[in-house]
TrEMBL record:
This is Multivalent adhesion molecule 7. Its main location: membrane. GO terms for biological process: membrane organization. It is found in: Cell inner membrane. Residues 41-132, 156-227, 274-362, 390-456, 634-724, 751-824 form the Mce/MlaD domain. Keywords: Cell inner membrane, Cell membrane, Membrane, Transmembrane, Transmembrane helix. One of its GO terms (cellular component) is plasma membrane. InterPro entries: Mce/MlaD, PqiA-PqiB_transport. Signal peptide: none annotated. The keyword Transmembrane applies. It comes from the Bacteria. The chain crosses the membrane at residues 14-34.
């Protein structure tokens, strides 16, 4: 029978994957459309005066060399006053298209200062853009000229104000010491009164412009011709052609900021200042602009201008900055020309150069200057003025004779009246006469130096030769150095004449130094002039080194410079420096090299203490080295047997702790003893400088029991020390070859003496055992006074002393004891391995320790050769 299958119903799909293709195509088309619209650019319109140099489809819009647009169309504006240029800007430039954005046409332009828009010469004209602020805009008015450079972080933009532009132009250089450091970027009128010139200073030179900088015009060539002569002034060839600005600055002033404004002067003389004063006169005969103001033949200023007033003529005189200090309220001016008489012509050169105005400073330096000075027609009577007499001294004559000039800044201010020896014939004395107007220059710290007619300064850089006038060669001359304080010199005071400024500085430095005297056991390898260092910087020097016979040491006088005197108020120590100090240990090698000057002449170092001791003389000691100084060590002397194996730098130890060190060991003349110089560290010195302190040698001792002081096998022998109890202090001690008995025994230990017929195998350190436990040891031994026995000093530790009393028995437990008999046989007795190798003593106690049987300190007990059987059975409760 045939079976028929049931029909299968398949549900039709609502969405077919084939529809994904048109959906993706639609999305991609939409994205491309939106992207095309977004990146289609922004169309703007720029109004230019003309279309010259602008081509459709060719002229580009650039920002800092990057193309951001292109000219699309050019059309004439409605009022026929220009053209409208349509530009398609890159869509990314849209944020910069604001109301204050500027556009201008860049074309090649050649001038004396160079070629502007050089890139346009090869690529063609282009429109430049400078982004601005404000609301978005699409219409712009083109600039006729490129806008001035914007203020930015690179460099400094400043403004200069002047009455006229002169020969300056955009691109004119700005000089500093004849080096171009910037340029003029724009200029404009400030109303109808002033010209504002914008200048840009390059970033690397921006620090040169200060708040008080002075600027002046150096354009072209300045020619100043008068009867006084012809003066030609120019900055450089570039400034002649293109104009320029120069400036000077005070290094200590604050730096200028962007936008700071400065005055632009016509000349350097006007810019750098000086002091202006008014001169009043009845008429202006013989006076013109440029007339010199002269003091003792030196031009100190000139007339700037003269004007007619209701009462006469007023002239403005300007003093040069370096001579401005000569002006005083009682200064005098008078007109002087050539003087023709029967005896001849005085100042004949003035027949050609014209008259000059002579000036005589006054003495009222602290009074304010008046509003004007009267120009006198004749010279004042200088002979009526009271001159200042001075006395100066020097160690020897500096080549001066009577009549030699006294000068200040190369201006004559007086003369030498007399040269003679002092009354005690120890120095040379000079009588000086100064003009009254210069009396105020002499102060309490003033001094004089002689001038040389010929001075030669030769160095690696070259040779400098300076000469003076003939009078300096024949009579000599002396210069006044005023000093720095305002204290007037006393009437009878004597000032000094030094050979040079350097010698004078050294003299005054010595006057201000702080002096100390250090004590040393030797000369410390220093001499006069040896440097003193603090952290490798020189802070002073050694003045003298003297032997003191009373104390048998050296006194080293040192001087500390003034600026380092605060260091001397702190806890401090001094130590000598070695030219080469090598310190070797298991930790490594430390090499210290002194500075070259200190290595050649010897030197001293200063160090500050963090934890100073109470010793007030510590700061006046000169220590052997830095370690001893910082430890504030105390010097001692040790005397030892010549057989002692002691070397320099050996340690001084107490119970293994270093408390000092040996610095020097030498064999005495008797050839039997050694003398050692040692130091105790300051914090321990009080304990080990008592007169009863004990010093002894410590070196390795090898035996069957082991090695005593094994560290000395590497470090070498050292000095052991035990503190004393005496309050009396000492600095010299006798050191023993071995430590004394009971040296390291506790005070409350039980000390006693064991007596035997001979020493046997006993030695220092032989242990004493109680039931196999070490309770004490042998501390020393010696022959009895009669020589018939050996006395062994021993002790029992404090915690075990109650185990021993008068009923105790001590016997020798060293080695192996063999007792052989014919009938009894052989008996062998041996202790522990330690006693077998190194020896030992056993002790047994019969009765409990009580007050009546307690063993006293120093008791003498016989040492038995062997133990009885019953002794080993004793076991009292203690």
């Amino acid at each position: 029978m045939t079976q028929i299958e049931s029909p299968k119903v398949v549900k039709k799909k609502l969405f077919s994957p084939i529809w994904l293709l048109p959906i993706v195509a639609l999305a991609l088309g939409a994205w491309l459309g939106i992207k095309s619209i977004k990146e289609s650019g922004v169309e703007i319109q720029i109004h230019f005066p003309s279309a010259t140099g602008i081509d459709v489809g060719k002229t580009l819009v650039k920002y800092q060399g990057l193309t951001v647009g292109k000219v699309k169309d050019i059309g004439i504006d409605d009022d026929l006053k220009g053209v409208n240029v349509k530009v398609m800007m890159d869509y990314r430039a849209k944020p910069f298209l604001n109301k204050e954005t500027l556009f201008w046409l860049v074309t090649p332009k050649a001038s004396i200062t160079g070629v502007e828009g050089l890139d346009a010469l090869f690529s063609g004209n282009y429109i430049a853009i400078q982004p601005g602020k404000g609301n978005a805009a699409t219409f712009f008015e083109a600039e006729r000229q490129p806008p001035p450079m914007q203020i930015g972080s690179e460099g400094v933009m400043i403004e200069l104000t002047a009455d006229k532009l002169g020969s300056l132009d955009v691109g004119s250089p700005v000089f500093f010491r004849q080096i171009p450091v910037g340029s003029v970027v724009s200029y404009r009128l400030d109303g109808n009164a002033r010209v504002i010139i914008s200048a840009f200073i390059q970033e690397q030179y921006a620090r040169l412009v200060k708040k008080n900088s002075h600027f002046w015009n150096v354009s072209g060539v300045k020619v100043d011709a008068s009867l006084a002569g012809i003066k030609v002034n120019t900055e450089s060839l570039a400034s002649i052609l293109a104009g320029g600005v120069s400036f000077s600055s005070d290094e200590k002033a604050a730096a200028a900021q962007n936008g700071d404004s400065f005055a632009l002067y016509d000349s350097e003389t006007s810019a750098l200042g000086g002091v202006e004063v008014s001169l009043t006169m009845n008429d202006g005969n013989g006076i013109d602009k440029g007339t010199r103001i002269v003091y003792r033949g030196i031009s100190v200023g000139s007339i700037q201008s003269k004007n007619l007033t209701t009462t006469g003529v007023t002239a403005i005189a300007k003093f040069e900055p370096e001579y401005a200090n000569l002006l005083t309220s009682d200064g005098r001016f008078w007109l002087e020309g050539a003087d023709i008489s029967l005896s001849g012509i005085k100042n004949p050169e003035r027949l050609l150069t014209g008259s000059v105005i002579n000036f005589l400073p006054g003495t009222n330096a602290n009074t304010a200057l008046p509003s004007s000075f009267a120009l006198q027609s004749s010279a004042p009577d200088l002979l009526q003025a009271k001159k200042r007499l001075l006395t100066i001294t020097s160690a020897e004559n500096m080549g001066l004779t009577a009549g030699a000039e006294v000068r200040y800044k190369q201006l004559p201010i007086g003369q030498v009246l007399a040269v003679k020896l002092t009354k005690d014939l120890s120095a040379v004395e000079y009588q000086l006469e100064l003009q009254p107007e210069f009396a105020s220059l002499v102060r309490s710290d003033s001094y004089f130096i002689p001038e040389s007619a010929l001075s030669v300064d030769a160095s690696i850089e070259g040779v400098s030769v300076k000469t003076r006038d003939l009078a300096t060669l024949t009579k000599g001359a002396v210069s006044l150095i005023p000093g720095s304080n305002n204290t007037p010199v006393a009437a009878n005071a004597r000032l000094s004449l030094f050979s040079s400024v350097e010698e004078a500085k050294q003299f005054f430095e010595r006057q201000q130094r702080l002096y100390f005297t250090l004590t040393s056991q030797d000369g410390a390898d220093v001499s006069q002039g040896s440097p003193i260092y603090y952290k490798k910087m020189q802070i002073g020097r050694v003045e003298s080194v003297n032997w003191q016979s009373k104390t048998e040491d050296f006194a080293i006088k040192i001087a500390i410079d003034k600026q380092f005197q605060p260091l001397m108020q702190k806890p401090k120590v001094f130590w000598r420096n070695s030219a080469l100090d090598v310190s070797a240990s298991l930790a490594g090698i430390d090499v210290a090299v002194a500075p070259l000057q200190g290595a050649l002449k010897g030197s001293i170092s200063l160090g500050l203490l963090e934890n100073p001791l109470a010793d007030p003389t510590a700061s006046l000691k000169l220590y052997e080295n830095k370690q001893l100084a910082l430890a504030q060590a105390q010097a001692i002397r040790l005397t030892l047997s010549a057989s002692a194996k002691l070397a320099a730098k050996a340690a001084i130890r107490y119970q293994g702790h270093q408390v000092g060190e040996v610095t020097q060991v030498k064999l005495n003349a008797d050839l039997n003893t050694l003398s050692a110089t040692a130091y105790l560290y300051g914090e321990y010195a009080d304990h080990f400088s008592s007169s009863d302190a004990e010093y002894h040698m410590v070196e390795a001792q090898i035996s069957l029991a082991g090695i005593k002081a094994p560290e000395t096998l590497i470090t070498g022998p050292y000095i052991g020390v035990l503190p004393g109890k005496s309050k009396q202090k000492a600095t010299q001690f006798q050191a023993k070859l071995v430590e004394s008995s009971y040296a390291n025994v506790a005070e409350d230990a039980l000390k006693f003496t064991l007596e035997d017929s001979n020493l046997g195998s006993m030695k220092v350190g032989t242990p004493i055992f109680f039931r196999g436990l070490k309770v004490g040891q042998i501390d020393g031994y010696s022959l009895s006074s009669q020589g018939n026995s050996v006395l062994m000093q021993a002790h029992i530790e404090p915690q075990y002393r109650h185990l021993v009393n008068k009923t105790s028995q001590f016997w020798d437990a060293s080695g192996i004891k063999v007792d052989v008999g014919i009938f009894s046989g052989a008996q062998i007795e041996a202790g522990s391995l330690e006693t077998l190798l190194a020896g030992g003593i056993n002790v047994a106690t019969k009765e409990t320790t009580q007050a009546n049987n307690r063993l006293s300190q120093g008791a003498v007990i016989t040492l038995q050769h062997k133990a009885q059987t019953e002794w080993q059975e004793w076991a009292p409760a203690q």
